[in-house]
Write a structure and sequence with these properties.
about 725 residues; mainly beta; Maltoporin, Chain A; five-stranded mixed β-sheet; about 55% strand
Length: about 725
């Protein structure tokens, strides 16, 4: 067995070190807002909605906060994962290649299905796939007041277990005064975003109504990878002396031309923008592309929050929610086997027809509803929260063949598979931070979670029925301490355990073992005047971790396999440095080892013990920097740099599966035009992505022994104008 997984590979490799030095050069300028952002009273009141799932610097948890002001200069249409690209240990990718449409995020090598996402404390991960699909909520960044990203197990939360990170979004705070906003942007690949926002302000000092309408469209960098995203956000708020009530309705629709097939190396060398989706040949052998090879989904979410301050020490929060989702993706199947789609062979002119071109739609129709609750006690020494949640998912999966080359083969409404699934998720937790003297605070967190999942058939056909019916009981303890050495320095250490149930697709592949994770975090925080530094080390030891195999299924979703024992360990560092009155530097770097231990692979030669191998899609070096230049009032320019080290697309360390490293740079400009009437402000923003036109690939997969890639766009731009009144 190899035993080099205790090393941190590549930290001082010449290539990585040179490129990280480039990240730190104060070479031009910049990105985002100045170091210190002042919280408004409204924001602080709204934060009670997420107090049960968020942490602050007194907790021994590794985290990063992102404010609305920091997102604003780059919020020109790209999705939330792309806007978070410059945070520590983050790698992002997009199917269309330009950050609009289907986007993905990995944190510490963990993909989106392993990142717990909550919106105002309400779980957002899909109950069955555990994925998060931001494409269903286009322009949601425009309704985000702040985002907290916790790396590692983090604190107890609602929904799917955090096996790499958790991401909590707090939506717009209420406004005291009436205001409005009209924003429009346009850019490469015919990309454009149109947003209208309004707030009545507090009517009679108690009631606010606010909302947003958005439309984002793009042709995409990849051929035909077009997106049409429509979304809305509406909230009503009541503020009383001891009461905060918020009712929210938000959601939208998306239509995207599929771009999840990727391309092989030869095709990429000839045409990086090629898209196989929709490919078929007509009767004369000519290559055609089906014009409606699209993904279509509609989602509406409703939340009602009630926070009550009971006295000077106690407050409570209860929320109820309901999410309705429905949609399908449409495929042209060239020369398909008819029985696979529930169609009997035809006899035409004495000839039996058993294959035909077929157009199918695969549907999802689901309901997700439940409640979350918390009770908070706080005094000078103790901050304790008791909380939890209960939710229920009910979903129907079915497929229809809507057309066949031979018209008699299809009858309207026939379904070639039709199955249902349900999932009940209950959790309760108690967490507390206790100040033991002036310098030491202790943290404890204990969660119990019970999950029951049942499905008639997890496959998308009626030929190979695989049912599921499982109940899981998880106990997730966490504990740690924070030591404050002086006004500038603090140290923290924590241990956390997480458990995670299998996804729907894991039952199809036969991987039905729950996963467990033991996470150790050790960190140092430094803050003095206008400089802040965070350094932390982590050791994450997994049992039965489901790791990406590098393969995907027929809808572009990744396939996983249990790896037995595995680990992720590394060092992360980030800083915010006010170098001068006009220059802010924000570097970060993560160096890690991500290893399968005694990895077994079942291939043509039988089961092989490959020993110690690297976990797929887990680069050992990830670094970023933001140089923010503010030469005069109301103007800022930023140079954003990102380095991602080489990574494997499978767990076998085959040479063909290696993705090369890449180093890209974006330039972001923002100027607030001073105005004295009509408008409160006029802001002009511009973003030039990949300014040096780097040809790079951020994601891919293995089809057998052959690699397939998702190329990302070269140099491209977005520019916009925002009018606030």
């Amino acid at each position: 067995m190899k035993n080099d997984y205790f090393k941190a590979p590549g930290l001082f490799s010449s290539l990585a070190s040179k490129r990280f030095i480039l990240l730190l050069l104060p070479a031009a300028a910049f990105a985002q807002q100045p170091v210190n952002q002042k919280d408004t009273t409204a924001t602080k009141l709204d934060e009670v909605l997420v107090q049960a799932v968020r942490v602050n610097s007194t907790a021994p948890v590794t985290f990063t906060n992102v404010t609305k002001a920091e997102l604003a200069p780059r919020n020109l249409g790209q999705d939330i994962p792309v806007l978070l690209n410059y945070l520590p240990s983050v790698v992002t990718t997009t199917d269309a290649g330009n950050g609009i449409g289907y986007t993905g995020i990995r944190i510490r090598g963990a993909d989106a299905s392993r990142i717990n996402v909550t919106l105002n404390g309400i779980p957002y991960n899909d109950a069955e796939s555990h994925g998060t699909f931001w494409v269903n909520m286009g322009d949601f960044a425009s309704s985000a007041e702040s985002i907290q990203v916790q790396r590692g197990v983090g604190t107890s939360t609602n929904g799917a277990g955090a096996f790499g990170a958790s991401l909590n979004v707090l939506t717009d705070a209420y406004k005291k005064n009436a205001e409005g906003e009209i924003s429009n942007s346009y850019g490469s690949f015919n990309s454009r975003k149109h947003t209208v926002k309004f707030s009545t302000g507090l009517i009679n000092n108690h009631v606010e109504i606010a909302g947003r309408l958005s439309n984002i469209q793009s042709d995409g960098y990849i051929d035909r990878a077009a997106s049409n995203l429509k979304s809305y956000f509406l909230q009503g708020t009541y503020v009383g002396a001891t009461t905060l009530i918020k009712a929210l309705a938000f959601g939208g629709s998306e239509k995207t031309y599929q771009a999840w097939n990727g391309i092989d190396a030869a095709t990429m060398a000839a045409n990086r923008r090629y898209n196989y989706s929709g490919y078929y040949t007509d009767d004369t052998g000519n290559v055609k592309f089906y014009n409606n090879e699209t993904d279509n989904y509609w989602q509406d979410q409703y939340q009602l929050h009630w926070n009550e301050k009971l006295d000077s020490n106690w407050n409570s929060n209860i929320a109820v929610f309901y999410t309705k989702g429905r949609g399908y993706y449409e495929n042209y199947r060239d020369d398909a086997e008819l029985p696979a789609y529930g169609i009997l062979p035809l006899t035409i002119g004495g000839n039996t027809i058993s294959t035909s071109d077929v157009i199918t739609q695969k549907w999802l129709d689901n309901n997700f509803y439940g409640t979350t609750f918390s009770l908070n006690y706080k005094d000078e020494k103790l901050n304790a929260i008791f909380g939890g949640g209960l939710n229920k998912y009910e979903g129907v999966h079915y497929g229809e063949a809507i057309w066949a080359q031979y018209s008699g083969a299809v009858r309207p409404g026939d379904r070639y598979y039709d199955n249902s699934a349900s999932k009940t998720d209950f959790n309760v937790f108690a967490k507390a931070t206790y100040a033991l003297g002036d310098n030491l605070s202790l943290f404890a967190d204990l969660q119990y979670r019970r999950v029951h999942y049942k499905a008639d058939n997890v496959t998308e056909n009626n030929l190979d029925a695989i049912p599921a019916d499982d109940t899981f009981n998880f106990v997730n303890p966490k504990a740690g301490f924070t030591y404050t050495a002086d006004n500038n320095n603090s140290l923290y250490f924590s241990y956390g355990r997480g458990n995670k149930e299998p996804r729907r697709s894991d039952y199809e592949s036969g991987s039905v073992k729950p996963e467990s994770l033991n996470d150790f975090e050790l960190g140092w925080r430094f803050k003095e005047n206008k400089t802040a530094v965070n350094v932390n080390g982590y050791y994450m030891y997994y049992k039965n971790q489901l790791v990406l195999t590098g393969a995907i299924n027929d809808v572009g979703s990744p396939i996983y396999a249990n790896s037995g024992k595995s680990l992720r360990m590394g060092i992360e560092a980030d800083a915010t440095i006010q170098a001068t009155s006009f220059l802010v530097i924000r570097p970060n770097i993560a160096v890690s080892a991500n290893r399968n231990i005694d990895f077994y692979n079942e291939g043509d030669a039988g089961v092989q013990n490959l020993g110690n191998t690297q976990i797929a899609f887990s680069p050992s070096v990830i670094a970023a920097n933001q140089l923010i230049f503010i030469p005069f009032k109301n103007f800022q320019a930023a140079l954003l740099s990102k380095y991602v080290g080489e990574q494997y697309m499978d767990n076998l360390e085959t040479a063909s599966s290696k993705l090369p490293d890449y180093f890209i740079n974006d330039v972001n400009l923002s100027y607030d035009i001073p105005v004295k009437s009509v408008f409160r402000s006029i802001t002009i923003s511009a973003l030039c992505n990949n300014v040096f036109d780097k040809k790079y690939v951020s994601n891919g997969y293995m089809y057998g022994a052959d690699p397939y890639y998702y190329p990302q766009a070269g140099i491209n731009f977005l520019a916009g104008v925002s009018l606030k009144f």
